[in-house]
Amino acid sequence: MAAVPVSHFDEHGWALVDTLDGHGVAALRRWVDEVASWPDDGEWLHHRELTDHGPALCRTENFVPFHDDLRALLTAGPLLEAAAALLGEPAVLYKEKVNYKLPGGAGYAPHQDAPAYRFIENHVSCMVAVDDATLDNGCLEVVSGVQDRLLPTDDVGCIRADVVDGLEWAPVEVLAGQTLWFHSRTPHRSGPNRSTAARRALYPTYNALSEGDRRADYYDQKAAELARTAGHGHRVPVSLIGDFQGRVVS
Ligand SMILES: O=C(O)CCC(=O)C(=O)O
Predict the structure, then answer these.
(1) Ligand 1 mean position to 213 CA, how many Å?
(2) If you write DSSP's letter for every residue of 212-241 in order, what string do you get?
(3) Does the beta carbon of 243 sit less than 6 angstroms from any atom of ligand 1?
(4) DSSP designation for 53
(5) pLDDT per position as a tens digit, 223-250
(6) CA 190 – ligand 1 centroid, Å
(7) Has this prediction a pTM greater than 0.90?
(8) Candidate of 130, 164, 203 to mutate for ligand 1, largest count of ligand atoms within 8 Å of Cβ
(9) 236 with 244: CB under 8 angstroms?
(10) Would you give the distance in Å from CA 56 to the centre of its chain?
(11) Which class would CATH give 6-229?
């Protein structure tokens, strides 16, 4: 695994690194398939969206307590060490998700994650690509150099349209096994998956341990807030902001 380029991250708010070799990618795909096959009635959270091909799994979160290999990958070793290097101090897992972006899966409106991430000031996240993420299947686009500030938001917590137009968006294609690190104030967005294959990615988020281990609080808070808004709106509420463009499965 390549060392995370801290100075590039500090300047731009994101950094791309090689993380897993071919064997690592094969194992990751197996683990993600296992998680995707879990039933809906567990303590993890599966979310589904309506695509032109029918209902599709779009996200699973809170799976680390129930999958030993993914827990080991996300809470110890090189990913945790990279998070600590970027935060400049020991890190702890704040939350984790898989975004599946199956064929026809929706994209994400321009947003910063920070407004959706309660309790903590600074987070770093990464996208560990399970499949190649390309222009065609909805790779991330990022804005460099604004990770020091929160941008004005619209009524669902995404970046206001007039502000979006003034930002310089750069697509970042991420090959399977590579990892795109980004700050929770790094603006990002992504398009839908227009290809015929899945664009799956694992997204762990970390914070400095000195700010506390708030993972359980995050999921409690999220469950409470999502329960309050359940049944409202036509977009799938996967987040505490309205970034996901997926249609509700009725
Ligand atoms: O997976 C993607 O395409 C974007 C994900 C994203 O921006 C998010 O989950 O906040």
Answers:
(1) 23
(2) ---HHHHHHHHHHHHHHHTT-SSB---SSS
(3) yes
(4) T
(5) 888 888 776 677 778 888 889 999 999 8
(6) 7
(7) yes
(8) 203
(9) yes
(10) 18
(11) mainly beta
